[in-house]
Amino acid sequence: MKFTPDTEQQDMTGALHDLLTKAGPADVTTDWAHGDGERWRELWRELAAMGVSGLLVAESDGGLGLGPVELAACLEQFGRAGTPGPLVESLAFAPALLQPADSALPSDLAAGVAVASAAVHEHVPLALDADRSDVVLVCDEQVRAVTPHEPVRYQAADPARRLFRVDAGQAPVVQQHDFARAFDLGVLGCAAYLLGLGTRCLELATEHVRQREQFGKPVGEFQAVKHQLADVLLGLQHARPVVRGAALRPGALDVSAAKIVAGEAAHRAARTALQLHGAIGYTSEHELHLWLLRTEALRRSWGTPDWHRRRVARELTDNPDANIGAA
């Protein structure tokens, strides 16, 4: 089954791709990891001007009023660019969770201008970039909106994923829509981002083997290398319709299946890219390491692979006739 974006969706993702490319993905990520958020903030302002930062926000509240299909398409582009920051939280989770009129929230959050992060039960225990977010949603039995003040930072393998422990304390409880749907949209967003990461790893690996020579010819001409890249491509081509199918029907079964296959496809792409690059792929001088670290971290964020497999098993046990990706 093919899920082909329509003309408007293709135009939107094309414009987003051009914007992210112009911004210099590796430079934005490197600056963000080293404590300089100015490039990222400038990019966010441009995204807000395009309306991308308010994808799921209703038009009456200043957003675009679009749906999960456009959300997944855009987050795939963010993943391909390796854009840092709490994108899944700001674009997917927060807009689906919150009541925009709640007085405890920043007035510009509904319009997609403010940046939101989140700590969600055991699945996202540490809030991403809490110190650079306008609000952190701490979700346990209730949802509380926290304005971060010197949160406790934890060391992460990926320096561009800045993780913080946020204490909700006596922060105000905010009204919420359907928490389950908001969480599933967060999972879908993470899956789409992983798909973009895997695509970029494949692109970097392909570029490298075309340029690197061994025994007088490009490494990419060796049959074994072609087979490795073909396996990566097949994995990504298998994952893409699962992710897009989940965007059409973002329920528990579909988004968990999308997270599993996108995570595995991105993981294979990252490992293959590293193997073909050799040790240089580990170094900070090469941009590949940015995508490697992000892939490994996001495979375990918004639910581990094992948790999502158990979830799929429960859904199929309760409804054996369910079809993944069926509209």
UniProtKB/TrEMBL annotation:
<dbReference type="InterPro" id="IPR009075">
    <property type="entry name" value="AcylCo_DH/oxidase_C"/>
</dbReference>
<dbReference type="Pfam" id="PF02771">
    <property type="entry name" value="Acyl-CoA_dh_N"/>
</dbReference>
<comment type="similarity">
    <text>Belongs to the acyl-CoA dehydrogenase family.</text>
</comment>
<feature type="domain" description="Acyl-CoA dehydrogenase/oxidase N-terminal">
    <location>
        <begin position="8"/>
        <end position="92"/>
    </location>
</feature>
<dbReference type="InterPro" id="IPR013786">
    <property type="entry name" value="AcylCoA_DH/ox_N"/>
</dbReference>
<dbReference type="GO" id="GO:0050660">
    <property type="term" value="F:flavin adenine dinucleotide binding"/>
</dbReference>
<dbReference type="GO" id="GO:0003995">
    <property type="term" value="F:acyl-CoA dehydrogenase activity"/>
</dbReference>
<dbReference type="Pfam" id="PF00441">
    <property type="entry name" value="Acyl-CoA_dh_1"/>
</dbReference>
<keyword id="KW-0560">Oxidoreductase</keyword>
<dbReference type="InterPro" id="IPR036250">
    <property type="entry name" value="AcylCo_DH-like_C"/>
</dbReference>
<keyword id="KW-0285">Flavoprotein</keyword>
<feature type="domain" description="Acyl-CoA dehydrogenase/oxidase C-terminal">
    <location>
        <begin position="182"/>
        <end position="316"/>
    </location>
</feature>
<dbReference type="InterPro" id="IPR009100">
    <property type="entry name" value="AcylCoA_DH/oxidase_NM_dom_sf"/>
</dbReference>
<keyword id="KW-0274">FAD</keyword>
<protein>
    <submittedName>
        <fullName>Acyl-CoA/acyl-ACP dehydrogenase</fullName>
    </submittedName>
</protein>
<dbReference type="InterPro" id="IPR037069">
    <property type="entry name" value="AcylCoA_DH/ox_N_sf"/>
</dbReference>
